[in-house]
Amino acid sequence: MKQNVQDMNDGNKIVGWAMTTTETRTFIKSFGKTVLTFFGYSVDYENEESMLAIATDSLSGYSPQTVLINIGGTSGGIGAVYPLAKEMGFKTTGIVSSQAIEYLKYISRAVDHVCFVSDEQWGGILPDSDRLSPTSEAMVSCSDVMIAIGGGEVTRDELIAGRQRGKPVRYYPAEVSHEWLIQQAHDKHLPFPDSFRGAAHEVFGNRN
To answer: Domain limits at 89?
Structure first.
């Protein structure tokens, strides 16, 4: 595992390009802070202003001296929380699948340390099993507090795992970009979406 290697985004530190779950957790926990992880859509929100307002309210209850903000490494979707967290003085980390190495331009410029986890998929549950993929396992195992603002199937799987392990899980409803989801349905020859709130809402939407 390569430690703290300077890379493409003028300040990002790439911790490792093919890390294990254990290596990732060891690094994140080495800061000695409570790890607050944000979960959600990796693509645009229908109302990003509302999402950021929820994130601001959530962050205001924590101290940058004692809390580390962790997200999925990329700038899109829930990654828009990175600049906000930095402005509020928090140190930030990102955990992302090694699949993202082909898309380095999408790594947020506001994440301090990025851990690429060796994974054959982007996250979620491994095929024909009830186990999380390495990336999702790293996200859940590193987190002390889990806050989701909307989210699809990967977020759903991670929140379920976190809840089963007794971690504090907070879910806030939010809609994914209508235009994006409609286009996805069109491209994949699927029916018109009957909801824009994502798979996480189906499980956690009525639990607050």
So the answer is: 5-204
Q: What is the CA radius of gyration of the chain?
A: 16
Mean pLDDT in residue range 100-119? 96
Residues 6+ apart with CB under 8 A from 24: 15, 16, 95, 115, 117, 138, 142
Which segments within 59-168 are labelled E, that is strand?
Answer: 67-71, 91-97, 113-117, 145-149
**The domain that contains 112 carries what CATH number?**
3.40.50.450
pTM of the predicted protein model: 0.93
Overall average pLDDT of the 148-160 stretch = 98
Residue-level pLDDT at 6: 43
Q: Would you state the structure tokens that stand for residue 37, as one six-digit string?
A: 């992880």
Number of independent structural domains in the chain: 1
Neighbour tally for 60: CB within 10 Å: 8
